[in-house]
Design a protein that fits this description.
The structure is a homodimer. The first copy, chain A, is of the alpha/beta class. The first copy, chain A, is built from 11 helices and 10 strands. In chain A, helix 7 links the parallel strand 6 and strand 7. The longest helix of chain A is centred in the last third of the chain and has 15 residues. The termini of chain A are far apart. At the A-B interface, helix 1, helix 5, helix 6 and helix 10 of A face helix 1, helix 5, helix 6 and helix 10 of B.
């Protein structure tokens, strides 16, 4: 009987997998990985394979989503298969669906967790996780089209005084939504709606390559942040709601937000 | 110059630390840990010390919160100190404050992340993380007193169709809020307010000792779940909002929810 073990790689590099993740991979007959949902800038495939002592087969989006039977499940039906995923696995919808499909095919599934951007982003800047509303994903804009629903959720959070984590899309071909393009798109919607929720004077925090050696975290007025080059992906944003005074202090120390900007959010 | 390295232990046992966590601990002169914010049922201190090759000094709540200078910061001022914490560190307010205090005292702080109940709970039952509203903590009841604000946040989430993760309090003395006591308290508030948000017929999911060898996960009607013994801590709850059909399928497969109960939530 087969088994499919989802193993989180964390965010940083080949060393942000857990000890149990390494042990479980060693017990597997075949090791797959995907990096298209979230790139890991510091990860070296060669080092990862050397560490595990195993060949790691990288799968494309279509191999995971359109033909999961073709590779992963065919092997998992008769043997033990490890599927390495950046962050904590089973967060992306595509992994949930793969897990369900495996169970439907009589394949046992096991989860080996690691760190996720959902908690690490908040921890990095010192904001309280329990004061975050629902998180949103912002997609790469196609022409002028930008979906309204993530903005609706951001507006809901804002009205409740909650922080919002926005993950910016990464494409398998390497394209990604940058912090400045995301801010421009959000500002445009706010302007058009005339809701006064987001403008050049709003406090936002940009986070690039969180937990990597080239991590860049900077909070400032939206208008200031838009002209800053955050470099390569992955990018994310935190749009703060109301701040506890300890959170304001944390944003000053860990996201370099000038003190005077914080006062309006207390 | 000193350094304080916050290192996540994850949820499971001594093997849910990352490789980087082990390396960083090895570079430290002194190793502290606290387990009062969240107990780890499978962790063996002896195995952890054996694996790290270092003595681990367990700190009480008062040593971390009331006298952080006394132990942790005194050592971190002149040397490199590791502070091991269950889950992903810097999620609890007390760790954020300790990190701020360290920086104020000129001590460099570093974060080494691991998995957290905030993402693992959703992953375990296959619900989409982006459909969770703000998480809540429910405290042990003192007499009949139970705070209203977590219920207010739960009600907000419910009205927006969002899922809610509720973490149930653990005390340093080993006492903890059980799933059935938490459900009784929430039901009482709903009854008193007559808001029809939660009752015996509501779908809830109980999670005990998530990611440990004795993990227990069961979804059912609140009235049914209240009589179930989930065993020792830590306990948590998920109160689902509206379900995508894939989420309903996941709750059936991974939280054993009978199919007919799920239909009202689609």
């Amino acid at each position: 009987v087969g088994e499919l073990v989802f193993i989180g790689l964390g965010l940083q590099d080949e060393r942000s997998i857990t000890l149990r993740g390494v042990e479980e991979t060693n017990r597997c007959d075949r090791v797959f990985a995907e990096f298209y949902t979230n790139p890991m800038p510091d990860l070296s495939l060669q080092k990862l394979e050397g560490m595990l002592g195993k060949k790691v087969h990288i799968l494309s989006r279509s191999q995971v989503e359109e033909d999961p039977i073709g590779q992963i499940l065919t092997h998992a039906k008769t043997g033990r298969v490890a599927f390495l995923v950046s962050g904590d696995p089973i967060i992306a919808t595509t992994h949930i669906e793969l897990r369900l499909l495996a169970e439907k095919n009589g394949i046992k599934t096991t989860l080996v967790h690691s760190s996720s951007i959902y908690t690490v982003a908040a921890a990095t800047v010192g904001l309280q996780l329990q004061k975050f509303g629902r998180a949103i994903t912002l997609p790469i804009m196609e022409g002028d089209a930008f979906p309204e629903s993530p903005y609706d959720f951001l507006a809901q959070n804002k009205k409740l005084g909650l922080h919002t984590l926005a993950l910016l899309e990464n494409r398998p071909d390497g394209r990604h939504l940058s912090i400045s393009d995301a801010l421009q798109a959000l500002k445009n919607i706010s302007n058009r709606r005339n809701d006064h929720l987001l403008g050049d004077e709003s406090l936002v925090v940009g986070l690039a390559r969180v937990d990597s050696s080239s991590q860049m975290v900077q909070g400032n007025l939206l208008g200031e942040l838009m002209s800053l080059d955050f470099g390569g992906p992955p990018h994310s944003l935190i749009i703060p709601g109301r701040l506890h005074f300890k959170e304001a202090e944390a944003l000053h120390v860990f996201a370099h937000v000038p003190h005077p900007l914080l006062e309006a959010y207390l």
